[in-house]
């Protein structure tokens, strides 16, 4: 039985049911202050917390003036947010402030307590929604409720990744069912594989932005159709195709059933491309010609592509399309071949239906996610505009950004308060706001950083201890889990998906040279790794195994650790608690990268190959860069430069201290990292660009002339 909530704190359950608590610092303090141990052990899930917290703790909190003061501040903000008053968007475009913008994405990474995401794409979509809420952009998200989540990661003694299902209790998430018309539990029906599948929707509130999550687990559905949407990126292409079909077609139909009439539509990645074909079908069913319907859908649509890696672009065989979608073309007034032609890839394979090609053909506004990725994407898709030079291909870019209030630690925010003035949250994009961070007091910033680092290492050790008990680990595994990490040692973080192009193993290329760095008696270095390999990515799993084996190699003296089960919770701790962030993607395969931005906001400089966002961000003051922009690099050469920069620049800068033990030059770099990321690489800047250059022109039909592909 959950304890009764005291009247003085009566709104806590309401606050917990809207994810905006997670990016509000007073709310984070309130939950933590009531019972810090419990808050930690429920991994910051406020609903689980309220389910388990004791009446004594709650009553004590209700009498504690420090906590109630935070509570009152939290409630002021909560009410203000609910009122929707005076936002950036409503001031810029009052006439559009109530016109919904539909945002489709196969995954949303909003908080670790809602495990419906796998990685970068989802977290980016989550940050997009949060910034849209802050700015009053009238976004409505459409996604999928994966009841079995993404997988939990355990590494066995051989270093092989074991993928286990996540089981989570929906009642302990802020997701609630949406009733269908007349009390039926579903809102829409989509036909696939010869059967009607009923779709229900769940609602998740992200500040002012609702996200509707689709689900087919209903008694009304055939048993084989009930688990169609239960797992993220699992199963073979046939299942994947059906998930994408249900997301796109079902998503549009659910919006219609809810009476939501979007004036602009955004397909975030190709998984959502059937949202576009469905809208063509609607117009044709309403009496319009196919050509007019296509033009109409194009004019209101934005498509964002997120990777140049071929495996990131789904394609399906014509038979699969026929089974999944047939005979939808009849309702669109076209033949099956015409339908397949929408997804025709002009170069790679004339037989397949390509989701990215589909989305490009049906969206007037198309973009990549960094300046470099814009160049790479135009190059990749010139064939759709035959005879054009790549630079004339009408694909733009909006560089990704991260949601500052989600990713910046409270302790760092307090330092920023002192330098930028208390209301800096409202002046994020004014030029010059961030310059003031350069005058922040070194000792204060260093102390805040040291505390975050200690707290990270304490949590890693605690997890290792727990794992030792739960799984009877052997000694080398405990070392590999990080028990020997030392808070005084320069700590490098490397956490991301274990795709081979990210090259997590590059730093082990010359084990002797690395060993010298790690085990130096005066200026040692330690590295913390985390990340999952996609369940079907066997080369990725091999790299993970290699890295894992290095963590137990005695020659490295316990200075390399691998922390299991990388998720948003662990990502927070890592980007806030390490000294330097490392990223070594093979150029030009990293479209943007975002974890380095999260680190930079916390004063953690990045060391990376020049790709994605780093090409725009690195000016030598805020981190280190290897290689040349846009030039495919050689592994051996990059590794060699990596060691040299670590030996000659990173390590000396970190260990050069003044008489008070403060690394002055390192702190200058920390502040530059904060200044540049705070000014240019936030989700607020990103969403403002989407609103101004993509959404509003979609609503008004303005902007440059439509320039559809002809190939
Ligand atoms: C930010 C984030 C990512 C993406 O990081 P990249 O640098 O783009 O690889 C992946 N997973 C989680 C949990 C994240 O928070």
Structure description:
The structure is a single chain. Helix 9 crosses helix 10. By secondary structure, this protein is of the alpha/beta class. It folds into three domains: 7-83, no CATH class; 97-400, Glycogen Phosphorylase B (Rossmann fold), CATH 3.40.50; 453-688, 3-Layer(aba) Sandwich (Rossmann fold). The model has no long low-confidence stretch (mean pLDDT 95). Helix content is 43%, strand content 13%. Pyridoxal-5'-phosphate is lined by residues 119-120, 123, 496, 566-568, 571, 593-596, 598.
What order do the helices and strands come in, and which of them pair?
Blueprint: H1 12-16, H2 25-34, H3 36-41, H4 46-52, H5 55-63, H6 65-83, H7 88-92, E1 101-104, H8 120-135, E2 139-144, E3 152-155, E4 161-164, E5 175-178, E6 188-192, E7 195-206, E8 209-215, H9 237-257, E9 264-268, H10 274-285, H11 290-299, E10 301-304, E11 315-316, H12 318-325, H13 328-331, H14 336-342, E12 353-354, H15 355-361, E13 365-368, H16 371-380, E14 396-397, H17 404-407, H18 410-420, H19 442-471, H20 475-480, E15 490-495, H21 511-519, E16 525-530, H22 538-551, E17 560-563, H23 568-577, E18 580-583, H24 595-601, E19 606-609, H25 613-617, E20 623-626, H26 635-655, H27 664-680, H28 683-700
Parallel strand pairs: 1-2, 1-9, 2-8, 9-10, 10-13, 13-14, 15-16, 15-18, 16-17, 18-19, 19-20
Antiparallel strand pairs: 3-4, 5-7, 6-7, 7-8, 11-12
Helix pairs in contact: 2-6, 8-28, 9-10, 9-12, 10-11, 19-23, 23-24, 24-27
Bound molecules: pyridoxal-5'-phosphate (PLP).
């Amino acid at each position: 039985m959950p304890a009764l909530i005291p009247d003085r704190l009566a709104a806590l359950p309401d606050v917990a049911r809207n994810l905006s608590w997670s990016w509000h610092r007073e709310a984070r303090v309130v939950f933590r202050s009531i019972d810090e141990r419990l808050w930690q052990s429920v991994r910051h899930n406020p609903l689980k917390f309220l389910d388990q917290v004791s009446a004594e703790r709650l009553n004590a909190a209700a009498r504690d003036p420090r906590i109630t003061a935070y509570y009152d501040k939290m409630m002021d903000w909560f009410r203000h947010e609910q009122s929707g008053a005076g936002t950036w968007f409503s001031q810029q475009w009052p006439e559009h402030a109530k016109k919904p913008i539909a945002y489709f994405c196969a995954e949303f990474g909003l908080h670790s307590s809602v495990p419906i995401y796998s990685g970068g794409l989802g977290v980016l979509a989550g940050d997009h929604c949060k910034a849209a809420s802050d700015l009053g952009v009238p976004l409505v998200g459409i996604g999928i409720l994966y009841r079995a989540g993404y997988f939990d990661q355990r590494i066995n003694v051989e270093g092989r990744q074991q993928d286990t299902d996540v089981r989570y209790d929906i009642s302990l998430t802020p997701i609630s069912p949406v009733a269908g018309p007349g009390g039926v539990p579903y809102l829409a029906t989509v036909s696939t594989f010869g059967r009607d599948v009923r779709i229900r929707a769940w609602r998740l509130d992200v500040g002012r932005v609702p996200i509707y999550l689709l689900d087919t687990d209903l008694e009304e559905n055939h048993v084989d159709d009930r688990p169609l949407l239960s797992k993220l990126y699992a199963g073979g292409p046939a299942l994947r195709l059906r998930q994408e079909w249900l997301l796109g077609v079902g998503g549009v139909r659910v919006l219609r059933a809810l009476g939501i009439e979007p004036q602009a539509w955004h397909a975030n990645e190709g998984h959502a491309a059937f949202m576009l074909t469905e809208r063509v079908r609607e117009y044709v069913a309403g009496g319009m010609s196919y050509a007019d319907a296509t033009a109409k859908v194009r004019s209101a649509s934005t498509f964002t592509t997120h990777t140049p890696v071929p495996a990131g672009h789904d394609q399906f065989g014509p038979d699969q399309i026929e089974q999944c979608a047939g005979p939808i073309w009849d309702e669109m007034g076209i033949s099956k071949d015409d339908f397949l032609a929408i997804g025709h890839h002009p170069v790679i394979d004339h037989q397949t239906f390509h989701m990215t090609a589909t989305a490009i053909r049906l969206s007037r506004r198309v973009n990549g996610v960094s300046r470099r990725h814009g160049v790479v994407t135009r190059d990749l898709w010139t064939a759709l505009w035959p005879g054009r030079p790549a630079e004339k291909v009408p694909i733009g870019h909006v560089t990704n950004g991260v949601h500052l209030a989600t990713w910046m630690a409270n302790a760092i925010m307090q330092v920023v308060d002192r330098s930028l003035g208390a209301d800096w949250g409202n002046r994020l994009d004014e030029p010059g706001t961030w310059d003031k961070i350069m005058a922040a007091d070194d000792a204060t910033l260093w102390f805040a950083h040291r505390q975050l680092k200690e707290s990270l290492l304490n949590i890693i050790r605690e997890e290792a201890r727990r794992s030792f008990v739960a799984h009877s680990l052997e000694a080398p595994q405990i070392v590999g889990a990080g028990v020997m990490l030392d808070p005084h040692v320069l700590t490098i973080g490397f956490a991301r998906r274990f795709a081979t192009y990210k090259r997590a193993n590059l730093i082990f290329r010359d084990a002797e040279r690395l060993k010298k760095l790690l085990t130096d008696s005066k200026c040692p270095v330690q590295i913390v790794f985390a990340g999952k390999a996609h369940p079907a990515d066997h080369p990725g799993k091999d790299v993970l195994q290699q890295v894992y084996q290095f963590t137990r190699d005695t020659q490295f003296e316990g200075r390399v650790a691998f922390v299991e089960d990388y998720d948003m919770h662990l990502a927070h701790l890592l980007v806030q608690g390490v000294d330097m962030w490392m990223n070594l993607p093979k150029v030009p395969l990293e479209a943007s990268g975002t974890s380095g931005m999260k680190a930079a906001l916390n004063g953690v400089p990045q060391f990376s190959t020049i790709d994605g966002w780093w090409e725009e961000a690195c000016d030598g003051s805020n981190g280190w860069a290897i290689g040349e922009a846009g030039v495919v690099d050689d592994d051996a050469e990059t590794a060699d430069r990596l060691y040299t920069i670590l030996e000659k620049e990173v390590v000396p800068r970190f260990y050069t201290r003044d008489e008070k033990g403060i690394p002055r030059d390192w702190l200058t770099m920390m502040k530059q990292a904060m200044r540049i990321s705070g000014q240019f690489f936030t989700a607020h800047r990103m969403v403002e660009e989407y609103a101004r250059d993509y959404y509003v022109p979609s609503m008004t039909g303005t902007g440059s002339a439509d320039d559809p592909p002809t190939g």
